[in-house]
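Input record (Table S2, row 265):
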Amino acid sequence: MNGPDAARPLLAVARVSKAFVEGPRPIRALHDVSFQVADGEFVCLLGPSGSGKSTLLRIAGGLIAPDQGTVIFDGRPLTEPQPDIGFVFQSTNLMPWRTVLQNVLLPLEIQRGALDDAHTQRALELLRVVGLEGFERAYPKHLSGGMAQRVVLARTLIQQPKLLLMDEPFGALDALTRERMNLELLRVHSMQAATVLMVTHSITEAVFLADRVIILSERPGRIVAETAIDLARPREIGMTAGARYGELAMEVRRYVGNAVAQAGA
Ligand SMILES: Nc1ncnc2c1ncn2[C@@H]1O[C@H](COP(=O)(O)OP(=O)(O)OP(=O)(O)O)[C@@H](O)[C@H]1O
Ligand SMILES: [Mg+2]
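Output record (adenosine-5'-triphosphate complex):
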């Protein structure tokens, strides 16, 4: 696989700030955040709770507008959600009355109005990729949390988004399922040459998955550090026992610790 192309950022976030004024008092969520994500790159965002990670992801997806700053996606200013940007949120929002297969097909149905056989074949193939072969006709209430999350991933991938925005997608899963989902996500990332920006609370997950880890401070979130993850690809679980992985995880842990300490000082 070719490495990410740093010369051509798919996403460029520049000097973004955001405050929420609806509540009893204004809350500054983000302050002067700038970063870029190259085409094909996998970037993880880490930071304390309330540091504006979800807000940043929503801004990066055109769901909400920043108060200040700009977002450029694929060469153009981003002002609204795009079909080329896929979202996976922590809570699964599957339609309970539709089967797994029908849920995966939903975005195409909405986009195109009608479905053909090729769409169904693609949905079936994606369900195989995420390990849900045999559950095509099951309903969401018959799935475990991890399985439902995999349906959401397949439903997002069927749109073949150029940019995949993921907000703690595996936070609710048990450790083994999470590990399997990480490997599946890496496979998708390399097979579809997708660009990923993912929020996680897990330092080890971030180091295992990402090309780069960006660390936010406590609220209002600012970028306080960035670590390039120079582990080879494809990544394998065995690497997590290696010395380099351990060093990188320690480095990221130190930055995250500093981010919290600075805010408390
Ligand atoms: N729609 C909103 N209206 C008002 N305040 C909001 C809104 N969305 C977020 N906030 C506030 O902005 C701050 C950042 O929230 P955000 O959800 O982005 O944090 P986060 O880093 O994703 O946190 P967590 O790790 O707990 O998910 C919080 O203080 C939150 O209360
Ligand atoms: Mg969040």
